[in-house]
Amino acid sequence: MNADARLEIGEMDHADLKRAMGCFATGIAVVTTRHGGADLGMTCNSFNTVSLEPPLVLWSVRRAAASHDAFVHGGGYTVSILGADQEDIANRFTRGSQEERFADLPVERLPTGRLVIGGAAAWLDCSLENVVEAGDHDILIGRVLEFDSTLKDTLGYLRGRFTKLRS
């Protein structure tokens, strides 16, 4: 590594850090919850497996996000891992009101009351196990209660752009 490329922690440029992190391909999911009688959802690429025994997963939500408190206090969440053909849904859940995000969208309501996005490559319904503070985000660790998956290709994210992840 070039010494000129190294930055001290206090000198880090957020754009440069995002560019570096963008070299790591991730999947794209929509995470939903139900809180106060309302459905809420957001696009996420910070989803990951924690443990198989017990079955635990995690994702992170920015504390300044409008739906942060609903996810932290909603008791659980559902992760819909988007299919390669669902880029429009990924974009939809990054803006607009919660009502607009769900309008005319095929969904399935689970026994927990939370929603699965129709056509998703996979989904996991989780109870909230733990919330860990981490910088300007909270990490939400969930216990998988129910799930399903398909062989469908998935939507990914690499270098600031959506991409199709094929098996």
Automatic annotation (TrEMBL):
<protein>
    <submittedName>
        <fullName>Flavin reductase family protein</fullName>
    </submittedName>
</protein>
<dbReference type="InterPro" id="IPR050268">
    <property type="entry name" value="NADH-dep_flavin_reductase"/>
</dbReference>
<dbReference type="InterPro" id="IPR002563">
    <property type="entry name" value="Flavin_Rdtase-like_dom"/>
</dbReference>
<dbReference type="Pfam" id="PF01613">
    <property type="entry name" value="Flavin_Reduct"/>
</dbReference>
<dbReference type="InterPro" id="IPR012349">
    <property type="entry name" value="Split_barrel_FMN-bd"/>
</dbReference>
<keyword id="KW-0560">Oxidoreductase</keyword>
<dbReference type="GO" id="GO:0042602">
    <property type="term" value="F:riboflavin reductase (NADPH) activity"/>
</dbReference>
<feature type="domain" description="Flavin reductase like">
    <location>
        <begin position="21"/>
        <end position="164"/>
    </location>
</feature>
<dbReference type="GO" id="GO:0010181">
    <property type="term" value="F:FMN binding"/>
</dbReference>
